[in-house]
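Researcher: Please translate sequence to structure tokens.
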Amino acid sequence: MQTKTLQDVLSPSPDAKAPECLVFSETQHPRLSYTCEFVFHTVLLSRFRITSSKEDYEAHPGIKINYSCQTLKGGLEIQPDGLLFEKGIREKVPELIPLDGLFKAFVNNIAQLTNTMNYDVFAMVFYFISRYEEWQRQEQDEHGRFGVQQSILFKHKTLHRPVVDLCTQELKEKLTLLFPNAPWPDTGPKLLSTLDIDNLYAFKGRPLWKILAAGLRDGVKGDFKNLSNRFKVLIGKQKDPFDIYDEVPAFCEKAGIPLVFFFLYRNGTKYDRGLKPGSASFMDVFQRLKKHPLALGLHPSYYSSTEQGRIQRERIQLERDLSQNVVYSRQHFLRFNIKTTPQQLIQAGIRADFSMGFSDTIGFRAGTSFPFRYYDFENEKSGDLHFVPFCMMDGAYSIHNKMGQEAVLKEMKGMAADIKTGRGYFITVFHERSFYDHLYPGFGTLYRELHLQIKALLNT
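Model: Translation complete:
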């Protein structure tokens, strides 16, 4: 994927011919602006304007939403919960209630009529995309992360559905009923493949003592297949099983699937055990990848979220070796703290973080498949950093929930159907090791089948 194309995904421009929705609110607040920007600009590719003038609202001939408790003429009525006009973080977690086939938050007692909504859709969108719940929660897992068990969506067994996107489409349908001549842009779902490179090669490029130690380990474990493969690679009789840097880009290029690689660029720690950054092996791979239309990013190391300045140092080194800007990243082990990591990324010059998801479970951590901006609660404003959520990581199946290929594809198609309805993004995460059949039988084939079948489903 060319950088410009990826940037268009992160900051889509509203269609000049799209309708403008006028939103009436008694109070102007950055939370409301942030939410409307996501709903109208990002998801619906349309325009919006917020007004506090009753006269302006009632005189407006086009699409309009009354986001207040006042009675005004015309438009869609949404009664505010109040969340978008507050400062700071509430202690109480909102209740999710099954309503019209979806779990919804901030439900009220208003009758569901053509011109009303029986829940505060703006508050619901804001709660999930601002990661409000991650600011509320103090518990962390063994790697210092917001674990899936803490997710309100997981607890209600609806993590696998992009509820924010589906509710936003419900809002659009409501507005279309009231304003049937509105020329909404025809937005379509999209597929994006991303790969985290934790170990550039399985066997190549390592010092002799590491090669001997690894071979001895294979022998002690009785893994003679791996020992044989190691020997064949080292004498040049077989390609390294992690060497996917020609066929995967070629596959994605031919299939028209945008592709992003993230490189771990640190070694020598307990959790960062790849090849030395800047080595000849890395430089060779970079040159090969540059021949393809894809994006390259940083996979900040395990301790980068706790070592001040570490992300910036790794980004600078990767930029120097790539001879190009690096503005995209995904945290190694998904070690991401909503209260501290975004500021570290911004200070390091990162424009988009791809960590928003879970490694052990499929689904939508923020309830959406669309990229969204970071919201800074300490200063109550929208930040420049984008979060790009993924819905599936290979380890959810290869390590945590082992399933056969057909079962995986069936589950993924079900999730893709919701993404298609929500007009969003199906974003996957695979690792180089998943293509080594000896470690994860069939996952290289699964990668190709999954992306081809999902692409076909989204395009029909």
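Researcher: Any highlights?
Model: The radius of gyration is 24 Å.
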